[in-house]
Amino acid sequence: MGVVTTMDSDSARQPQGKLGGHALIGANLGARGKHYVCGSLAAFTNIIVTFPIQKVLFRQQLHGVRATEAVGQLQREGLRHLYRGLLPPLLQKTTTVAIMFGLYEDFSRLLLRHARSSGAPELVTRSAAAALAGTAEAALTPFERVQTLLQDHRHNGRFNNTAHTFRTLLRDYGVRECYRGLVPVLLRNGPSNVLFFGLRGPIKQWLPDARSRMGNMANDFVCGGLLGAALGIMFYPLNVVKSRAQAQVGGKFVPCHTILMTVWRERGGSIVLLFRGATLNYHRSLLSWGIINATYELLLKVF
Fold it and tell me: What domains, with CATH codes, occur in the chain?
């Protein structure tokens, strides 16, 4: 029997139940491939549900306005623009979450194989796997970049859609412009992955035992939601820096600390104003990562 570590979750120890046709689907996907597919489908579900909330949050991060004012901006722009910018996060999130879960499993399998011979602690090995998976996600920064430009109303007249934005950036500024804001993404992704995968097992163990599939889904939702919300608050300033950096088109690439100090001065040196939007981000992350974690674990059982 295997030992359950702090990095384990239900996804790492699925029971071999009789699932009929779904078992055949899982067999076709393969033991490795299904983590990518389940992660992608979980992210797709989440984005469709939470995109309007994310758009309000983005306006708060970028302009430092209250939620009511951000909602007012969206109302004035109309329903036609509400889902403007949906495609980049849909492509980016479905891919990054697939990478997050899939590469974590692959890196864990690979590193654990070598760790057994070297005697490295499993927790350290799995933390390294989580950090590597988070770093790999940063390759998809251009999707976050385009999402930022399409959500910023100041660029409504300049960029028409996802394809047009990519073409314009590549034609006028080159590939490097698509990776504006890469540093805060790297600083966010690696550590947040380590904490997410490291803590979701212990958190679920502290929750009441589930005696049904719905109860188990509820525990997965609470576990993922609490972690997502806490990590969202912890790394919120990095997201503010990322939004500010990526809203710029052309010009000098400004270091993270310089952007942070600029925002700090603009907002009067106020922690409250620096974290404006954090409350909405907390609730959005609670919902988003609750949906992602619960859907991911459910799909693993189904497939």
Answer: 32-302 (1.50.40.10)
